[in-house]
């Protein structure tokens, strides 16, 4: 019985070529008790008109037309209008499987969970990548956070909000930071820190269309990294320390610094030396706290050695990584 209303928030901006595919996938959901909120974020193509046409076809659809102010503000506008017992998000250039919300909702009800999360298809121009066993796994807050922070080959649990169904009480007072990228990081982190139980569905239910702009490691990517990603990951650590525990926050700090090392190598490989230098300064500024965490049993011996080498000589670290990737790994693969 579909007693609960699910609000699906769809930000729309200049996606006339993709909106029909997205909307048809939502309208064909096997779970019918939906409130579909289309937020036209000042589109200059026919997207706004398409939204209005869909609203005339289906009474479950509500449309907001607003001045362009970005993805975060569009999502916030949709959330302010939403009346559902559960909240979901779909990006308008993506699409979903027919039973996505039925599966997410059933998992929440069956496992008394405040949130359900699924795997997703990675849609490239020339291929689709998928995976999963179909199993459903209940998770405690701490189990979920450890997977989210550390990564796990058996689970695909990232910060993207579109792969999740949130119980309304969990996110009713959360907002996305306006005018910034990587906005999902803190929204998801705060939701994860607040919940008691979650459910993971090891099945691809969402079709995520990857960025077609090419390599992410370019100048604009570097600017976004320092303006948005790094501050959000630091806020992520502070939130976990405040709402969960120091040990979990130390785990998040460890994986944050590992992430910065990956960023550093990517920037060096892309000849973005100015951003690479800034990453060196970013890590060295944390030296005292970093050394404390890296002396704990949270950190692998290999990562302890890598960080020690980096702190001693970032340029030597980059040479060693390049040697490992270009010589040692291919040699091992031949064997």
Please describe what this structure looks like:
The chain has about 325 residues and is α/β, with parallel strands linked by helices. The chain folds into 2 domains: about 5-210, Spore Coat Polysaccharide Biosynthesis Protein SpsA, Chain A (Alpha-Beta Complex); about 220-335, no CATH class. The protein has helices at about 20-25, 45-55, 70-80, 100-110, 140-150, 170, 185-195, 220-245, 245-270, 275-285, 285-295, 300-310, 315-335; strands spanning about 5-10, 35-40, 60-65, 85-90, 95, 115-125, 130, 135-140, 165, 195-210. Strands 1, 2, 3, 4, 5, 6, 7, 8, 9 and 10 form a 10-stranded mixed sheet that branches. Strand 1, helix 1 (about 20-25) and strand 2 (about 35-40) form a beta-alpha-beta unit. Mean pLDDT is about 90; it is low at about 210-220.
